[in-house]
Specification:
Elements (H helix, E strand, L loop, with lengths): L2 E8 L5 E10 L17 H6 L2
Antiparallel strand pairs: 1-2
Length: about 50
C-alpha cells in the first residue's frame, strides 16, 4: 500500500519551508537494522536500563 511523504521544516517564527515535495513511496515490509534508531544515551534512560 503506497503512502505519500513530504519533508518540510518550520523555523522558530513558524515559517514553513518545503525541503522535499510530496512523493509517493512504498514502505518496507521490515526496516533494515541499519535504519533503526540507536538506544538513547541520556542519563535518565541509562539509569533505567540498569
Amino acid at each position: 500500500m503506497p503512502m505519500t511523504l513530504k519533508v518540510y521544516e518550520v523555523n522558530r517564527a513558524g515559517v514553513t519551508r518545503v525541503v522535499r515535495e510530496e512523493a509517493e513511496v512504498v514502505p518496507l515490509e521490515r526496516p533494515e537494522a541499519t535504519h533503526q534508531f540507536p538506544a538513547c544515551e541520556c542519563p535518565e534512560c541509562q539509569e533505567s536500563a540498569r
